[in-house]
Write a structure and sequence with these properties.
- This protein has two helices and ten strands.
- By secondary structure, the protein is mainly beta.
- The strands form three sheets. A five-stranded mixed beta sheet has the order 8-9-4-3-10. It has a three-stranded antiparallel beta sheet with strand order 1-2-5, with no helix packed on it. The chain has a two-stranded antiparallel ribbon with strand order 6-7.
- The longest helix has 7 residues.
- The N and C termini lie far apart (37 Å).
- Bound molecules: zinc ion (2 copies).
- The site of one zinc ion has 6 residues, from helix 1.
């Protein structure tokens, strides 16, 4: 696993107004199935890569980013582009980590997911969904 990136990689939101570059090393990569991550993403799980806060350089659109810290949670936050709603990287509430939504990256980060966390909380449709038939585009 290539955790030591020798180059910078780019990321952006869906509308393209928020853009950034990242450098490694990336420390971990978790797929989180907890109910908060399912709600926050609207999907089966959140795919988060962790690195140090100083490893990001914002290129544009930083003023469009909105932050939501879930009041009843100790750790859960999400940051998103206020124009298109895409999740974007953010610094953890402890200030210790930068969390990068892996789907926001425009290039291969090198690192691969190491585990599924909060596995017991996964969506009841997840197992069947991951085993179902695959198409490269819309099915005919
Ligand atoms: Zn956007
Ligand atoms: Zn989670």
């Amino acid at each position: 696993m290539d955790k030591q990136l020798s180059r910078e990689i780019k990321g952006s939101c869906l509308c393209g107004q928020v853009r950034w570059t990242l450098k490694g090393p990336f420390e971990s990569f978790h797929l989180c199935h907890c109910s908060r991550c399912r709600k926050g993403t609207g999907s089966a799980y959140a795919a988060n890569i962790f690195t140090r806060p100083e490893n990001i350089t914002w290129l544009s659109g930083e003023e469009l980013i909105k932050r939501f810290d879930l009041p009843q949670a100790k750790r859960f936050s999400k940051c998103f582009c206020s124009h298109c709603g895409s999740t974007v990287p953010y610094v953890s509430r402890t200030g210790q980590y930068l969390l990068i939504p892996a789907g926001s990256l425009d290039e291969d980060p090198g690192i691969r997911p190491q585990d599924h966390i909060f596995w017991a909380d996964r969506a009841c449709w997840y197992d069947q969904g991951s085993e179902s038939e695959k198409f490269d585009a819309y099915p005919k």
